[in-house]
Specification:
Blueprint lengths: L1 H12 L8 H39 L5 H25 L11 H43 L3 H49 L1
Helix pairs in contact: 2-3, 2-5, 3-4, 4-5
Amino acid sequence: MSNIDDFKSLWSQQPAPEKPDPGVLISKAVGLRNKMRSKLLLANLICLATGVFIVYIWMNIDPKMITTRIGIIVTLTGILAFVLATAGILQPLYKSREQSSNADFLDQMIRFKKGQDFMHKIFMNIYFFLISAGVLLYMYEFAMRMTWVWATVCYAVTIGWMGFNWLYLKPKTAKKQSDKLNKMISELEEINQQITD
């Protein structure tokens, strides 16, 4: 019988798991939301600047082959599609925290998460395909002017870099962003559950 009493006293001495402070957690969530919004806006600005630069090159370098023009158009299509897609997933992040309840804020983050999942799982593959195809088509005219050794080196380096981005950097970045967002959403759901109980 004393074993049971010892067990009860040990159990009662266990520190209770601390529940996160809702105010601190909400401010962390707002900070994460603002950081993600800033990163997406910066990515959009960089893509738009790249698109403008590509158009400038197109206007100032008169390509002789149709593959160069097709490559430019395909690359610009990929950039424009990326900007439009990210603009769509940015919308839930623009409602201010003061205008929304905890449940609304949680819903915003969940909608953003769904949009981000679509971006990482489906759209980024389309984007990388368009950019890769566009760059490779664009390079063809200039590779034809090189010796076959340099053309092969140029294509190998370009394809290697694209493969590294597509197969290593993209999944790693997507997982890192998804893990942060999943953690924040689960903590927000816990707070929301505490409030509703």
